[in-house]
Amino acid sequence: MSLLDQSRTRSRFLGRRSMHLGEDILLARHGAHIHHLVHDRRNRRMVAVLHDGTVDSASNALLAAAPTPLERLSQQLQDVRDDVAPVSKADLKILGWFTVGWAVVSALFIVGMIALSAATGTQAFAQAATIFPSY
């Protein structure tokens, strides 16, 4: 007896099993016209075969699956390319130029600090650092 058999026995013993959302929807749609129901686990849905031979299905999920972060990013990039995003291409271009300018100024400041510390020597640089009050 496998674990699955035990769980089936246990659910029969209690007299109840959980009803899938799709099963409830199909029963509401077709009622007594359902010949049999099949649970499609791969597609997360219930499939009903009716007495007249037609087939109907209903999803077991209330909400559609959320898009992955990669899908959201590609959609946002496509919206920017199509110019339907809240931020236009011109705004992004200006923001890019400001970012490049800030990076250049930061790099120049770092290079200047390294050059200053190399030119003054360690003793003078340490003395100048102790002159300023610490907060």
- Compute the number of helices: 4
Q: Rg from C-alpha positions?
A: 34 Å
Beta-strand segment tally:
3
Strand order of the largest sheet: 1-2-3
The pLDDT mean sits at 82
State the shape.
elongated
Content-based structural category: alpha+beta
Order of helices and strands: HHEEEHH
Tell me the major beta sheet. Answer: 3 strands, antiparallel
Uncertain runs are 1-10
What's the structural blueprint in terms of helices and strands?
Layout: H1 3-14, H2 21-30, E1 34-40, E2 45-50, E3 55-59, H3 69-81, H4 89-131
Antiparallel strand pairs: 1-2, 2-3
Overview of the molecule:
With 135 residues, the chain is α+β, with helices and mostly antiparallel strands. The chain is built from four helices and three strands. It has helices at 3-14, 21-30, 69-81, 89-131, and strands at residues 34-40, 45-50, 55-59. The protein has a three-stranded antiparallel beta sheet, covered by helices on one side. Strand 2 (45-50) and strand 3 form a beta hairpin. It is elongated. The protein starts with a helix and ends with a helix. The model is unreliable at 1-10 (pLDDT under 50).
